[in-house]
Amino acid sequence: MRTLSNSASSARSLVALAAGVALASLASLAAADDALPTGTAGAGAVSKGTNDVTTVGKVETAQKADPDAKDATEWSVNAGGMLTTGNSRAMAGTFGTAFRARRDGNQFSAIGAANYGGNTPVGGTYTKTADNQQLKARYDRFLSGEFVAFLGAQVRRDSLAGLVPRTQVDPGFGYYFYDTATSSTWIEAGYDFLYDRRSSDAIDAAFAKDGTILDKTATAHSARLFYGLKSKLAEGTTITLALEFLQALTRNAATDNHPFRLNGDFIVNAKLTKTFSLAASYSLKYDTGALPGKEKLDTITALSLVYTIL
Asked: Which DSSP letter does residue 5 get?
């Protein structure tokens, strides 16, 4: 049983550490808007640390690491890209950063991602094919047993989807079926608040298409379900699976329905060296309440080189 003072101390150290890295991630994304927006959220390889214990006046003996130890500090960045010239003129870039810190029953995590792409046909004009950035942050408080309470927030900007940006706040509870230092399986249930700010281009396109008049902003309240899996398949190879379902509780004025959203991520990460790994990822976002004239399904398939900082 942990004492109250130990919990408070671990929470303070966690908040201080998380705040520094979160500010670094925000600065990175802000710079990306002015330069080349890149990236999909990649999963960094889990770094492993050892605790060196010095005892004065006693013979030191090797201590076996606890396989169930869950305290961790992880930070990684990833990037990938493509460039073609000649008859096919296209370019695409991806960038991401992921951070997680856990101390006792407190955990903070943050993920930043950006994607950009475009092409120019011979004799034609440049067309943007991807332009989106996303930042997620979340605090988890692990309760007694396998239960956890959490509060998450995220901001997503996608100029081609007409979202500039979309903001979400997600409180809820989770239950871990299995949770060790190498593997986790859990479910979550909670509430999602959504606030959209739409681009002028999207509003004009909807009106030109069928006379639909869109408001500049919109809100939605939804019920949220989530399933997550993280597992180490072999030495140096891990997989991550995330599925999220959101059912709107309020009517969407633009589509005149109660839309649902389905988000999914699948990532395979293979370690190449102590600090570098290769990540293959697939991400989908399906929204039945997409703006008029916009596709309901967006997908991203990426291959990225991951550098583990911590």
From this structure: H
Q: Which amino acid is at 283?
A: S
The tens digit of pLDDT for each residue in 205-263 reads: 988 888 888 999 999 999 999 999 999 988 889 999 999 999 999 998 877 789 999 99
Q: Phi, psi (5° rounding) for residue 306?
A: -110, 130
CB 89 within 8 A of CB 120: yes
Cα atoms found within 13 Å of the Cα of residue 33, Cβ hemisphere only? 14
Q: Each residue of 57-93: b (16+ CB within 10 Å) or e?
A: eeeeeeeeeeeeeebbbbbbbbbbbeeeeeeeeebbb
Amino acid occupying residue 233 = L
Please determine, looking at this structure, whether the domain spanning 82-88+116-308 carries the CATH number 2.40.160. Answer: yes
Stated length of the chain: 310
- pTM beyond 0.85: the answer is no
Give the C-alpha separation, 77 to 310, whole Å: 10
Where do the structural domains in the chain lie, given as residue ranges? 82-88+116-308
Residue 180 is encoded by which pair of tokens? 């060790």
Sites in the chain below the pLDDT cut of 70: 1-69
3-state class of 72 per DSSP? strand
